[in-house]
From TrEMBL, chain A:
The chain crosses the membrane at residues 404-426. Residues 22-276 form the OST48 N-terminal domain. Subunit of the oligosaccharyl transferase (OST) complex that catalyzes the initial transfer of a defined glycan (Glc(3)Man(9)GlcNAc(2) in eukaryotes) from the lipid carrier dolichol-pyrophosphate to an asparagine residue within an Asn-X-Ser/Thr consensus motif in nascent polypeptide chains, the first step in protein N-glycosylation. N-glycosylation occurs cotranslationally and the complex associates with the Sec61 complex at the channel-forming translocon complex that mediates protein translocation across the endoplasmic reticulum (ER). This is Dolichyl-diphosphooligosaccharide--protein glycosyltransferase 48 kDa subunit. Component of the oligosaccharyltransferase (OST) complex. Its main location: endoplasmic reticulum. Residues 290-428 form the OST48 middle domain. One of its GO terms (cellular component) is oligosaccharyltransferase complex. The keyword Membrane applies. GO terms for biological process: protein N-linked glycosylation via asparagine. Pathway: Protein modification; protein glycosylation. The gene is Cbn-ostb-1.
UniProtKB/TrEMBL annotation, chain B:
It comes from Caenorhabditis brenneri. One of its GO terms (biological process) is protein N-linked glycosylation. It is a multi-pass membrane protein. This is Dolichyl-diphosphooligosaccharide--protein glycosyltransferase subunit 2. The gene is Cbn-ostd-1. It is found in: Endoplasmic reticulum membrane. PANTHER family: DOLICHYL-DIPHOSPHOOLIGOSACCHARIDE--PROTEIN GLYCOSYLTRANSFERASE SUBUNIT 2, RIBOPHORIN II. The chain crosses the membrane at residues 192-211, 223-245, 251-269. Residues 1-16 form the signal peptide. Residues 25-150 form the Ribophorin II third domain.
Length: 445, 280
């Protein structure tokens, strides 16, 4: 029995190595397992562990002993008014602060819980009872007569392959639900799917849209956010967007320029869920080094001004569960003392990014700073602090041509002094004939 | 009244489904604050054509748009759910304004732009204006870009603090401007002045030779060469200090050299005074 602990340890390591993320899926009832089975199975097939619960289940909890017990939270329950158990919008914010990722799918029957949750994360859903209406782009087959089942074309998607996949090849997708808008001060908001210019959000049963709260392409159908701790949140106005029915549906847009065909909901949902679960667009720094040009290691003490330095950073990207060299060509290095003195674009050689530049002729404490923020990628931030000191007095230029007059005058004075000392000491005046010797001279002698 | 409303809803819902909508009497113009709209200051636009000239307006003026919406079949006025004006700025941002109908069922949009600019979220400049008409009962929803407008609207500069800015695009590269070294005189001028600086020594030696120097006072003492070699040596050391030695090395050598030179100098002076005393 001695080997039992070893075996247990080995098993626990093996369990940790597989990237099985734990996901809590909340539906209005557990029936979401059936209505959204295609979507949930696609997640399960990638080796993740799904726990499906009703949103008002009294046993719900995201934390146990202060530790999150799930990596991701999917809320596919638009109508929920109050979450069950210890769950609340506030608790979900804490979950995000702890690094958890959240996918929220709402609908026209949106309850207070989701609206409050959206506000916590810098978004606002339109009120319950409203729908996104588009008389120009509704689906002729699926729509029930109020033009709320709308066909979304690919030019409404965000220009970020990491989030929405290859949008150029994507078929139109179907959306039915509530409109969304980012808060005015939400600088991190990502407009993943915008509404078309002809869409607006209003009660579909009203005779006249007198004052729609949201209208035009300012309105979002799907919004996203990557918080400052790189946790990701996606808010979709439509829970049907992820449903089996819409995955399997064929689009038939009222807009004659959009060709009918199978819907792209499955592909778009897969791309978005991979992004929100941090399976795509994740970067990390493998190593950072900097040294003087021609040397291999950083200087023992400080850099001197105007020295040529070489900076190298190795960046890796998570692709299909493996860390591979990052191929981005727009990573920039800043050499910062409060403000950047130098900003250069790093040359990428298979994940090894290098820049060579001359240090500024300013002394001080500087930072090699890589602050890489691109839509879809996690925020990459690396700081290396170095001191740059002025030259020693012996390191300045010597023997300047235009200073030769100064050198010449000093040394001619020294030579003159040597000669003068000889002449002064040993010269003997020969008395000049006919010159009257002064009285004072006589007395002296 | 309520009954009438419900009836009208029912009417549109039941009878308009099969019909197309048409826009008639479409007029657009920019008016001054108190100007009465008439045939002169408004322009008719034929449906699905575009106003040839760009409209120009400032915040104090009114944008006036009026039209009728009728069924194509029997020319009856209708009231669809969506009657909007959509302004698209050059960067693709858009603003949607609702057009209301008057008591006669005519649609009129008549607002001072300063008032309308509240919903423009600080957008200003050139816009494309489209008329959007849609309803569940309409077969041919209208999305018609009827005019372009250059509207100078009031904007408020609301900068985001640097700490809150999120920039996803690469920034401009910065190259450090190195301090330019001071401009130096040409080699000819420095060499000329080197010669000028050396000339006093030459003049000194020349004048000495002219007046005839001699060394008749030199005492026959071994200290005489030692002293002068020592003195020259001190200056030589000074030269080496300039070229390669540091302060501590220099002081080390100077202590030896200086001591001997000092003693030798003392002996030379003593010899000189002894000679002087003897001659007197």
């Amino acid at each position: 029995m001695r080997w039992l602990p070893v075996l247990l340890l080995a098993v626990s390591i093996a369990v940790q190595e597989t990237s099985a993320d734990r996901i809590l899926v909340l539906g209005e009832s557990v029936a979401v397992k059936d209505t959204h089975s295609n979507f949930l199975n696609s997640v399960k097939e990638r080796g993740h562990e799904l726990t499906v619960r009703a949103a008002d289940d009294s046993q719900l909890a995201l934390f146990k002993h202060g530790q999150p017990i799930f990596e991701h939270l999917f809320i596919l329950a638009p109508g929920v008014q109050v979450f069950g158990g210890s769950l609340s919008p506030n608790e979900i914010s804490k979950f995000v602060d702890a690094g958890g990722n959240v996918l929220v799918a709402a609908g026209s029957n949106i309850g207070d819980a989701l609206r409050e949750l959206a506000v916590e994360h810098g978004f606002e859903f339109d009120e319950a009872g409203t729908s996104v209406i588009d008389h120009h782009n509704y689906d002729k087959t699926l729509d029930s007569g109020d033009h709320t089942t709308i066909v979304v074309s690919k030019d409404q998607l965000i220009n970020a392959e990491l989030i929405v996949g290859n949008s150029a090849k994507l078929s139109p997708v179907i959306f039915k639900g509530v409109g969304l808008i980012p808060g005015k001060t939400n600088n991190l908001a990502l407009n993943i799917v915008k509404a078309s210019g002809t869409a607006y959000s209003f009660d579909p049963n009203a005779a006249r849209a007198t004052n729609p709260a949201l209208a035009g392409s300012r309105m979002l159908l799907i919004g996203g956010l990557q918080s400052r701790n790189n946790a990701r949140i996606v808010l979709s106005g439509s829970v049907d967007f992820f449903s089996n029915a819409f995955f399997a549906a064929k689009t038939n847009s009222a807009n004659p320029s959009v060709k009918p065909g199978p819907s792209g909901n499955g592909e778009l949902a897969a791309a978005i869920v991979q992004w929100v679960m941090k399976e795509s667009g994740v970067l990390r720094v493998k190593s950072v080094s900097h040294h003087k040009n021609g040397e291999m290691v950083p200087p023992a003490e400080d850099y001197f001004i105007t020295e040529d330095v070489v900076y190298t950073i190795e960046i890796e990207e998570l692709k299909n569960g493996k860390w591979v060299p990052f191929q981005g060509k727009d990573v920039q290095l800043e050499f910062v003392r409060i403000d950047p003195f130098v900003r250069v674009t790093l040359k990428n050689n298979n994940g090894k990014l290098t820049a060579a530049f001359k240090l500024p002729d300013v002394l001080g404490v500087f930072k090699f700073l890589v602050d890489y923020r691109r839509v879809g990628y996690t925020h990459l931030y690396d700081v290396q602090q170095v001191s740059v000191r002025p030259l020693w007095h012996t390191q300045y230029e010597r023997f300047i041509r235009s200073a030769y007059p100064y050198y010449a005058s000093s040394f001619s004075m020294m030579a003159g002094l040597v000669l003068f000392s000889i002449v002064y000491l040993y010269h003997k005046d020969s008395p000049v004939k006919g010159v009257k010797v002064l009285d004072s001279e006589k007395k002296k002698n | 009244m309520k009954l009438l409303f419900i009836l009208s809803v029912l009417f549109t819902a039941t009878f308009a489904t099969v019909d197309d909508v048409a826009v008639t009497n479409f007029k657009v113009g920019i008016l001054a604050k108190d100007q009465v709209p008439d045939g002169e200051n408004l322009k008719n636009v034929v449906v699905h054509s575009k106003l040839p000239n760009e409209l120009k307006a400032d915040a104090s003026q009114r944008l006036y748009v009026s039209f009728n919406l009728v069924k194509k079949s029997d020319n009856a006025k209708i009231k669809p759910q969506q009657v909007f004006l959509r302004f698209v700025a050059q960067d693709g941002e858009d603003v949607v304004l609702v057009v209301k109908d008057d008591s006669n069922g005519n649609y009129v949009y008549d607002t001072i732009l300063r008032t309308a600019s509240k919903s423009f979220r600080n957008l200003s400049g050139q816009f494309k204006i489209s008329l959007l008409v849609g309803d569940v009962t309409i077969k041919n929803p209208i999305n018609w870009n009827f005019a372009d407008i250059d509207a100078s609207l009031p904007t408020v500069y609301e900068p985001t603090p640097k700490s809150q800015q999120v920039r996803y695009e690469p920034l401009n590269e910065i190259t450090h401007e190195f301090r330019q070294p001071e401009k130096r005189p040409s080699a000819v001028i420095s060499d000329l002045f080197t010669v000028i600086c050396l000339s006093p020594l030459v003049v000194l030696i020349g004048l000495w030779l002219q007046i005839g120097i001699n060394f008749q006072n030199a005492p026959a003492s071994p200290w005489v060469p030692i002293f002068h070699v020592g003195l020259a040596g001190i200056f030589g050391l000074y030269f080496l200090f300039w070229v390669q030695f540091n302060m501590f090395e220099t002081l080390k050598y100077l202590s030896v050299l200086g001591f001997f030179t000092f003693v030798a100098g003392n002996r030379v002076l003593r010899a000189l005074s002894e000679t002087k005393e003897k001659s007197e």
